[in-house]
Structure of Glyoxylate/hydroxypyruvate reductase B:
Amino acid sequence: MKKHVLLYKKLSPALLARLENEVEVTYIDDPASDSLARLREALPQAHGLLGASLKLDAALLDLAPQLEAVASVSVGVDNYDIADLSRRGVKLTNTPDVLTETTADTGFALVLATARRVVELATWVRAGQWTASVGPKHFGTDVHGKTLGIIGMGRIGEALAQRGHFGFNMPVIYHSHSAKPAVDQRFGARHCALDELLREADFICLTLPLTKETTGLIGAREFELMGEDSIFINISRGKVVDEQALIRALQTGQIRAAGLDVFEREPVQTDSPLLALDNVVATPHIGSATHETREAMARCAVDNLLAALRGERPQNLVNP
Ligand code: DGY
């Protein structure tokens, strides 16, 4: 008898066929729309789950005694209690690698958009306000040659360093658990303490995963260490930052601008003070959101899940 998979992420016809070839699939579109009622009802039959953006807590897992594997269509695994999944014997997989370059592209889009005030000025043009050539009031700041500070030197951090070093001639400094000699050599990068990075970098890019240790890592003290020309970019998770402290830093001119793809609460509240600030470029968590990359992530998740349900070791197993 085929195993049963609950799918809560829309797949392309080709990937759905690949999944259905081996397992029975129940698709639950937007499980949050009925407060997870359909998901709860289906969980007792589930051997596998495939989807993203769902907090899989103990109460939900208790409903799924047959569960063998969860394939997350994401690199971040902050929606899961890995230790609890391991205790229950449930394999967790994610989708690293395939989204690295696309997410770094998003990071650089935010670097350029904030420095050159692209969104603010494009809005200004559309509003019919471009009536004479622009002056210093509308000038931005250079990207090339400025210091790029990367917090978290994982795959995405490296891809950012590559863009900064080779594309924009930027000195690269980074903070991570330990120095990475290969990164230092390839990108002329320098490992440093967090405070040093905050003081020295012109662009401060956050790429750390959300964990107990990184929650609230960047707060009022950290924004105080940044210079008034600093630009802060977050493409990791909103909760790594104290959002109220960020808002204050932007409102008081403690830092120049922020490019934010992630927020403490998502979707970001429409009345968030962040959205009222011209020096904020806010995007809706689109780090990996291209047709090609989302398809590659979904393919990776399908392969991981099928391998796990066959009793093989999936390529991207997260549990230790
Ligand atoms: C990821 O893959 O973790 C992205 O941030 C989407 O959640």
Observations:
- Residues 229 and 256 are 5 Å apart (CA to CA).
- The pocket of (2R)-2,3-dihydroxypropanoic acid is lined by residues 74-76, 99, 287-288 (CB under 6 Å).
- The chain has two domains: 3-96+291-309, 100-282.
- The longest strand covers residues 3-7.
